[in-house]
Amino acid sequence: MASESVREQTGRAAPGLQVTDRDGSRGSAPGRAAPENPAAPGISAAPGTPPYTGDPLRLPRRPLVPVAPGPEAVELTGPVFGPADVDPLDADLTRQHPGDPLGERITVAGRILDRRGRPVRGQLVELWQANAAGRYANRLDQRSAPLDPNFTGAGRCLTDDEGRYHFTTIRPGAYPWPGRHNAWRPAHLHFSLFGTAFTQRLVTQMYFPGDPLLPYDSIWHSAGDEATRARLVAAYDPALSVSGSSLGYRWDVVLDGPAATWAEEGR
């Protein structure tokens, strides 16, 4: 993982991300800039927090194989998903099984923006996460924390014409960091965003305000300076809360530019 933005990693904006104005044109008139997030000001690394160097179990064991351009490259550059492929119910992770999942229900919403604050419409946004006990519904997660038969922890949606996305889910639990003494990962959501092809994928993480584990998390601190880390922390938004049902959090993603949201390298 690295702390560079998409532009800093590649020297250009994320390719293939069509940014449109409200009238549908790709104009250059700037919209409003993405708001700064005051949810996590001044949080520094706790003493003794080791730098994040990656999990050895996730590192490749063989050299990377370059893919040369050719006729088969059409599979890498063709459209990925459209409105017919994404069901509106995919965005509600609490309604994917017969019963209700355990845990605190939350609403997470925001906008996908370009460097000038213009909305990115039709963007595929994917979310995956641990359950309320901090365990993923994945065969590789063999910890003793319980699984929830009514929660898979994966959803997706398409942004609307204003670049807005919206998920209903369960607040994930913290979980112990394998191989580190008494180290725990704070509650977080994984986000994936696509342009018009799989090769334009951006992967990042969203955190919750006021989490006492943030100062001890090496991955969060690897994102860069204070402002960059603060942009990874959602803001509590009562306007998004559903009375008697869920707490609301707002989190915007900026794809490129000086205020770009931190992205995991090579994902």
Give a topology summary.
Blueprint lengths: L5 H5 L63 H4 L27 E9 L10 E5 L25 E5 L5 E7 L4 E2 L7 E2 L2 E7 L7 E6 L10 H4 L4 H5 L4 E2 L10 E4 L2 E2 L13
Parallel strand pairs: 1-10, 1-11
Antiparallel strand pairs: 1-4, 2-3, 2-7, 5-6, 7-8, 9-10
What does this structure look like?
With 267 residues, the protein is mainly beta. It has helices at 6-10, 74-77, 218-221, 226-230, and strands at 105-113, 124-128, 154-158, 164-170, 175-176, 184-185, 188-194, 202-207, 235-236, 247-250, 253-254. The strands form 3 sheets. Strands 1, 4, 9, 10 and 11 form a 5-stranded mixed β-sheet that branches. The chain has a 4-stranded antiparallel β-sheet with strand order 3-2-7-8, with no helix packed on it. Strands 5-6 form a two-stranded antiparallel sheet. The chain starts with 5 loop residues before the first helix and ends in a 13-residue tail after the last strand. Mean pLDDT is 81; it is low at 1-34.
